[in-house]
Fold this protein.
Amino acid sequence: MNELLLICVAYLIGSIPTAVWVSKSIFGIDIRDYGSGNSGATNTFRVLGSKWGSVVMLVDVLKGVVATSLYILMPTYLSNELLRTNFMIGLGLAAVIGHIFPIWASFRGGKGVATLLGMAIAIQPVVAACCLAVFFVVLFLTRFVSLSSMLAGISFMVFILFIFNEKEPLYRIFAVLVALMVILTHQKNIGRILRGTESKIPSNRHKNRSRQD
């Protein structure tokens, strides 16, 4: 029962619509009416620029860290690494689902990559640091936030399965699901990259952006 309650709390934390609140309170718009139409960090970079994109990304990462770390409220999980890891994965996934389908924003959220990163930081910081390095290297070279996010998500699977050779089966399955999820949720971005129409950072302000299909 306590586990279920914490998973619900993790979902509510993940549901905090950072980009929507920032766009409405500071710019007087709903970011979901611009760019790609979602409320993730990538679209915030595209519509509101790198400053506010960075703010939204940081908060969304923290959502994943905080939600995944709720296990500390359950003493049972403090002394059992296997149970703790499995429960942290459950908490983190609840936060990611909350980010994608936020109850506070009519269930229209982002793609969950930043919150997934926060989840990875809480569970395995070294792997998360490696994925961050991949993200920033790709971002520096291409200026595509979407491509950086996809390659960071795919590299998470590579690090878990092959480089760090994680033994926990659930964690390995989770790593594969992460890679699949970032590809599936970025299909439109992939199409725009192939067509040469994907926005790079720094982007223009929201008034110069129309909704992309």
